[in-house]
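Hi P.,

Sorry for the delay on this. The queue was packed all week, but I finally got your sequence through. Input first:
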Amino acid sequence: MKKIVIALLLAALLVPLLPAAPTPTASAQGPLVLAYFYGWFNSGQWGDGQLIDRPAEPYDSANGGVMARQISQAKSAGIDGFVMSWFGPDEPYTTGVFHGLLDQAAAQGFSAAVDVDMGQGFIGTTDAALNTVSYAINTLANHSAYLRYNGKPVIFFWKQQRFTPGQWAEIRNQVDPDHNTIWIAEGAATEYIGVFDGLNLYNIAWSGNPAGTNATWAARTTRAGGYFVATAMPGFDESRLGRANPVVRGRGDGDYFRRSFAGAVASGPHMIIITSWNEFFENSHIEPSQAYGSFYLDLAREMIGQYKASGTVVPPPGGAPAAPAGPTSPTGVLVAPTASTLNVRAAPTTDAEQVAQVGYPNLYPLLARTADSAWYLIDFGGGQGWIAAAYARYQGDINAVPVQ
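Then the structure:
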């Protein structure tokens, strides 16, 4: 889940759309390490009370000099490219920032790719999604700095579960039937592989054993015939964001970053991505900050250098820390949303009052279901409510869950 601040929309028309260079580069050679990047910050946001930490140098993301500095810092650590959250061509702010990011990346021999963000409401229809992906393929991917893997432009997606695999198949058949680009789906969504070309778990901070999590999902993804993009994280803390059952994963003075990066390497991935370069609201950043200085950037440099030199990274000594105790359910069945944000309703209908929101990767006790199993009644920690089963997976015997 990423946080977007409405203030960026007020400044949208102030960001020019910069022209792209005409010729794409060859694919990256050797191990490829990326980082999720967010280009929606402005100087007025750094005083937000939800922030636990702040960048060492507060900035406006649309500033070309800021982008140049961020790219230089990332490149110095061995990071090959940024994957930037993007709301599609009809939203001018992130589109303008990404064009600027491409130009700055080209000047430094760096790469950038879009993460098509389906979670903010800008891409709400299949026609809008078709237009968005078409623009990514036919405009953005023609830039010399656009990220390529094995010679193909790479497009990441966030919350692609908004549409079914069948709907995405219709879109792909129109814009890229021969799979001349690589599409990476997000989350526990192996059913999308085939239409999409691979999978990435954006957030693994819920796991006390990130090496095991990366290994499990690498096996599932490659078994389904997809590229696997492994995830490394320094930590995660969404405790100030008002979310139900917030995920908090302490950094442990670099221990979790070491374990997750070593686990990502050991999973034998096609690419590795760090979550994140600068998601300060969820505290997964490695960008130099007021609280940590350059510690996590330096640690990334150390591990990436070891990885690119030898193909391995030695994990820290000792066993993996125990995972936090999970919730229990009176029915013995838990449910996990597949969407980052899922509405909880007072009754099993979309017309009912919204009483809360839940989201991946949290687990919730499943208390009851409708007769057609289209809706699940869950305990979300602050009460009970209904979620749409189409956006969730259950763990356990569904027949043990009473119909209500």
